[in-house]
Every structure is written in C-alpha cells, then in structure tokens.
Known about the structure:
This protein is mainly beta. It has a single domain, classed as Sandwich (Immunoglobulin-like). Helix content is about 15%, strand content about 55%. Strands 1-2-3-6-5-4-7-8 form an eight-stranded antiparallel β-sheet, with no helix packed on it. It starts with a helix and ends with a strand. The mean pLDDT is about 95. Copper (II) ion (CU) binds near residues 73, 76, 79, 103 and 105.
Amino acid sequence: xxxxxxxxxxxxxxxxxxxxxxxxxxxxxxxxxxxxxxxxxxxxxxxxxxxxxxxxxxxxxxxxxxxxxxxxxxxxxxxxxxxxxxxxxxxxxxxxxxxxxxxxxxxxxxxxxxxxxxxxxxxxxxxxx
Length: 129
Ligand SMILES: [Cu+2]
C-alpha cells in the first residue's frame, strides 16, 4: 500500500513536469498585471500560440480591452528589419493571439492594451529557438 502511494506520487510529479512545459512570464502594463503564456518552451521560430491574461489592480480579469501583440526584430546581416502585429481575440477571460517569428533569435514583443481611451503596454523579449 505504501509502495503504490509513493509510486503514484512519482507519476503525478512526472505528469506535472510534462504539463508545465509552456513558457510563462508575468509583466506589468500601467496598473494591470499581465500573464503571458506561450504554448512552446522554448518558443520556436515559426508559429506559436500566445495567451494573455490581464488583471486589474482589484484582481479582476479585464475583458473589455483591445489587445494587440506587436513583435519585431531589427535588421541584421542577411535580414531586413521585421515587424508584425497580431490582434488578440478574447476567449473566456483570456486573449489569444498567434505569432509567427520568421527566424530564430531575439524578438522584441509588446502587448498593447487599449481600454477606456488609454493605451498601456508590456514589453518583453522572446528568444525563438
Ligand atoms: Cu533576424
């Protein structure tokens, strides 16, 4: 009985590690707290799905904002500057967007949150593999 309980614990631990494979980061944008989740860890060159959860100072999920994810890479040897924008669409309490990093390397990302006539943003870098 004790042995099987220990075995179950190990199984749960492994399951936890497998499921926690997405890439996650927390940022602030103005008064909002922004949780960004990417389905791939590490994020890859090509398509990645991004989920953005925005919380106001009272801890309430923000669902009435317009959210855009802008991402860019400056020009480099053999590559002109690249700059893209993805509109995020609300699904439940989460804004979802798809990014398509056209090469591996560091990408500048900016979540722009437009609400009540104000725009605030959270910036972060993603190193696409
Ligand atoms: Cu590049």
